[in-house]
C-alpha cells in the first residue's frame, strides 16, 4: 500500500483499549469520583477542570465521564497539535518571504496511485444526497430553524458562524443533544415558540457538526497534563469530544451517524492527526472504526495543493471535500500579504468564482473528489434575502441561482446556503442537473488540468478589470467593525448590508485593508491607501453607526485597528479577540 512519508512525522499511536468491552455509550468511569479509571484500565493520565461558572444544565454536558474522555484526547494529541501549529507558522513565513507552495514531490506516489478510494457515503446513512446544506450556529433557535428548513444536511457550526463565548459553547452542545433526541424547543422573549417539525431524526436534515479549528483554544476548560503543567484546552478536541461522547450512540440508534466538517486544515499531516483522533475516540467508545465520517473544508492555500493527500489520510473516515471560498480568499491574502502589487486582490465584491484562479481551485477540487469517490460540496453565496424588501430578496435569489447553477454544472454534488428561504432556490439548481440521482460522483472531470501556475495566478482577478475602490475600502472598514462588534456580543453570523457575514468574511475585510496599506495600493481615484486615510474612514464609519449603552463598538474599533492597521499581521483576528474579550 502506498504511504505518505515524512522525516518529521512520528508513527501513529493507538488507543488504550479497555479490559472489558462495553456497549456503545457505556459510561467510561466506574464511579463519578474516579472518572479517569474504567474497567481497571487508566483511560486518562491528565485531567480537565472547568474554570467557568456552570449554568442550570451544564453538568449534563460536562459530566465527569465526558471530561475524562476529553482528558484522554488531550493526553494523546495535545503535543502533536502544538507541533503542527508551529509548522504552520514556519510555512506561512516561508510563503510570505517568497517560497511558493506547490504539489509535494514526496507524496506523488499517492497522487499517481489510481487504486485507492475514500469511504465516501457508503455505510453512512444520510450522506448520499447532499445537494443542499444549510449552515448556521448551534443556538436553540437556529438549530430548530435549520432542522426545519427542508435542506438535506445541516452544517451545525461551532466555528466561523459562532462566537465562542462559554455560554455559546455549552448551550450549543445542549441544543444538539436535545435536537438529536427530538426534545428541543425554544421560546423567544416575545413568547414565540419554536419546535422541531419531527422527532424522527431521519426526517430532518442530516447533522454535520463543525468543531473549531486546530488553532483555537477553549480557555474555560484547563487541561493539566501528566507532568503537572496546565494549559487551555483545545477548542477542536473539546467540541469534537463532547459532541461525539454524548451523541454517537444516539445518532447511530436513530439512523444517522457522527459526521463532521473539519475546518482550516493546512495540509495532510493535520488530516492525519484528525484521523488518529477518530481512531482513538472510536476505540474508546467502542464504535467501529469508519463510523465517523468527515468532510474537509479546503479553505487554505496550502491545503489546495494537498487535497489528494488529505483524502488519503482520512480515507476510511472521509466523505468529501468542501470549497470554503471565503476562508480560501483570506488565506491567499494572508499568504501573499507582503509579496507586492501582483498579489493584491481587488474589492472583495469583485472577486467572483469566475476569476481564473478561483475556477482552477474549484475545478481541481471536483476532479480530485470524484477520482477518489468523494462528494464535492460547493461554497456559500453570501447573499441573503430580506422578507421586508422584495427587491433585496429578488437580487439574492438571482445571485444564488446563478452561483448554484454554475456549481452544479461544474460537477459539484451539493452546496451551501445560509438562509432557509434559499433552500428551494439551491435545490432547484441542482435538481436540474442531478434529476433523481443522489450525486454526480461518477462524473470524473478528466478534462481538468490544474497546476501550480493556475492556482497561484492571483493577478487574474484584476486582469479582467476588477479594481480597488474607495467604496471597497469603506465597505471593508464598515463591515469589519460591525461584524467584530456583533462577535464580541456573542453573535457569530450576522446579516450586514444584505450579506451573511461570519468570521471568514470579516477576515477578508481586515486582511485586505492590511495588504492594501502594506502594498501601497491606490484606489480608482489614484489616492494611496495609507494608515492615515484608513483612520479617517474608520472615524467616519464610527460616527455613522447607531450607538447604544450596551454596544461594543469602542472595543471593535480598537480591535480592528490592531488587526488591520497594525505593523504586524495577526494570523487570525479571533484568537487575540478571544483571549482579550471572551476567555474571562
Automatic annotation (TrEMBL):
InterPro entries: Malate_synth_C_sf, Malate_synth_sf, Malate_synthA, Malate_synthase_CS, Malate_synthase_TIM, MS_C, MS_N, MS_N_TIM-barrel_dom. Keywords: Glyoxylate bypass, Transferase, Tricarboxylic acid cycle. This is Malate synthase. GO terms for cellular component: cytoplasm. Residues 206-457 form the Malate synthase TIM barrel domain. Residues 468-579 form the Malate synthase C-terminal domain. Pathway: Carbohydrate metabolism; glyoxylate cycle; (S)-malate from isocitrate: step 2/2. One of its GO terms (biological process) is glyoxylate cycle. The active site is at 210 (proton acceptor), 502 (proton donor). One of its GO terms (molecular function) is malate synthase activity. Residues 1-21, 96-115 are annotated as: Disordered.
